[in-house]
Amino acid sequence: MAKEKKQQQVYTLVVEVGRKAGDGLPKGATGAGLMIYASGVDEAEAVRETVAILKQADLAPLDVQGYGTLEERRELGHEIPEEEVALMQRAADENSVIVAQMTPYFGDGDD
Questions:
Q1: For residue 47, what are the contacts with CB-CB under 8 A and spacing of at least 6?
Q2: Which of 5, 67, 88, 95 is most deeply buried (CB count within 10 A of its CB)?
Q3: Which residue, among 12, 7, 30, has the nearest Cα to 91 in the 3D structure?
Q4: Which alpha helices (DSSP H) does the chain contain, by range?
Q5: Long-range pairs for 48-51 at CB < 8 Å and ≥24 separation?
Q6: Residue 53 to residue 45: CA distance in whole angstroms
Q7: Which of 52, 50, 61 is nearest to 23 (CA)?
Q8: Are 70 and 88 in contact (CB under 8 A)?
Q9: Is 102 exposed, middle or buried (0-12, 13-18, 19+ CB in 10 A)?
Q10: Residue 80 near residue 3, CB atoms below 8 Å
Q11: How many angstroms separate the CA atoms of 47 and 15, rounded?
């Protein structure tokens, strides 16, 4: 008998990426921060899928911070605009990873 399939949820992730040849980041950028909505049966799966897709896109993921599901974020008092909710719904409908925003980092990097 097949196991009951867990419900997919959409998680908000912020991923820090470094530089890599062919990454498409602007000249002079030291890396970037990406706001991502990713579907998964749990946050760990959403993170694994996101990292795999970013690596396929020639990006170099360095760190991932999870901010939970839409419901969890609302419980924390986050105000979430309708555009964000629509992107989360799209990630759920398509069982996909949506990059909502990419912010390149410039500067001398204090690493």
A1: 11, 13, 38, 40, 64, 66
A2: 88
A3: 12
A4: 43-56, 70-75, 82-94
A5: 49/97, 50/13, 50/15, 50/97, 51/15
A6: 12
A7: 61
A8: yes
A9: middle
A10: no
A11: 9
Q: Which among 55, 20, 17, 60 is positioned nearest to 35, based on CA atoms?
A: 17
pLDDT digits (tens, 9 = 90+) for 6-64: 788 999 999 999 999 999 999 999 999 999 999 999 999 999 999 999 999 999 999 99
Tokens 């946050």 found at: 43
Report the largest interatomic distance among the alpha carbons of the chain, rounded to a whole angstrom. Answer: 57
Structure tokens at 82: 């309708």
